[in-house]
Amino acid sequence: MNFSSHAHCGSRTSKENIPHSIKPEVSQVQRPKQRTVLGVLSENEQLMLSCFSLQGSQFSKHSSISDGSQLTFLGCPSSSSFDVYVEEACEVVLAASGQEVVSNSYYEDAETAALQNEGVRLLLELSSSSCQDVSMQSENDKYLMSEQVLCVSQYAQDIHRHLRESEVLRPMSGYLDKHPEITISMRVILVDWLVEVVEEYQLRSETLHLAVNYLDRFLSCVACVKRGKLQLVGTAALMIAAKYEEISPPELSEFVYTTDSTYTKKQLVRMEHVFLRVLAFKMAAPTINQFLQLFMSIQPLCANSENLAQYLAELSLLEIDPFLQYNQSTVAAAAYCLGIYTINRSLWPDSLHYFTGYTMGEIVPCLNELHKLYISAESRPQQAIREKYKSSK
């Protein structure tokens, strides 16, 4: 099995850098400058504007907001069809139709309009300062903030419950028995190669975790995959994961290039089609990374502990046995514990014990296996994950 393509990937670094985010564009209204999406308002324009007038006086009690992702707009619910955009000079609220809402069109009473204008002014000040703070953060801080944006306290329990219910469906640990031509070492080489491709195209860690999840689930459902087709299966898994997770996934030709043109575009598209049918188009899957990010939003770690926990989580992707025997949440908890103990000599915090229901005794067996893998990582021939986390980022 030849994964020589990663040797050529280095020459393509300048060819395409995948952006981490794309600012929203609004085509219906002409604007001199790019606007920044700050949040969302619900219901209709009239209710939205009435929220401004009713809650505007409360801003004086809350003169600063520490986290832009936690910003609540005047007590209004967060799910909506309205986007709030802020420029240096004014604020424009867009209705679902794309028309700008004039602030005084729904107000006949001058006093109410004055209160509304005061609320808008205060909102503009708070929002502008929040945007300034975000713009001064490092790229790593922006990434961490984007990872934690869905881990807000009011939804954390619901998110965790849904992930725990979904993780019951996982690949079988002994699925390679159905594939006589594929060995454990071949899968390790494949995952190591996927790590290099993810790094080359600057894809997210979640994309890697999803790709390995798709790979294992696919191989669990089929039998007798040929040795020469294993890289094609892995490439299709990564391509689907990138389409699911990334804002701007690499083009089909880029995935063909990563295989050193071992496979054609037609072969890759056919494999993608087979992949989706075998997995019944069930692409939403809980991963170790999702649980780990949720845990770290409940009980934050220092930067070193966090990076070590993420490194351990990716190391676990290399091995089928024993990590497929554990739930994804258990492996995430073990990575969290080993990371925080190695750096700070702390153990599983009470906050996460109450949040997850996991005791230290339930985590220890998986933690011991993860520690063995951690100790042996340096002596392994596959070093893509170690090289990734040795970088300054």
From TrEMBL:
Gene Ontology annotations of biological process type: cell division
Domain Cyclin C-terminal: 286-393
InterPro entries: Cyclin, Cyclin-like_dom, Cyclin-like_sf, Cyclin_C-dom, Cyclin_N, Cyclins_cyclin-box
Keywords of this entry: Cell cycle, Cell division, Cyclin
UniProt xrefs under Gene3D superfamilies: Cyclin-like (1.10.472.10)
Nucleus recorded as keyword: no
UniProt keyword Translocase, yes or no: no
Residue intervals of the Cyclin-like domain: 192-277, 290-372
Region (Disordered): 1-29
Subunit record text: Interacts with the CDK1 protein kinase to form a serine/threonine kinase holoenzyme complex also known as maturation promoting factor (MPF). The cyclin subunit imparts substrate specificity to the complex.
Its biological purpose: Essential for the control of the cell cycle at the G2/M (mitosis) transition.
PANTHER family found in the cross-reference section: CYCLINS (PTHR10177)
Similarity remark: Belongs to the cyclin family. Cyclin AB subfamily.
Protein known as: G2/mitotic-specific cyclin-B2
Source species: Labrus bergylta
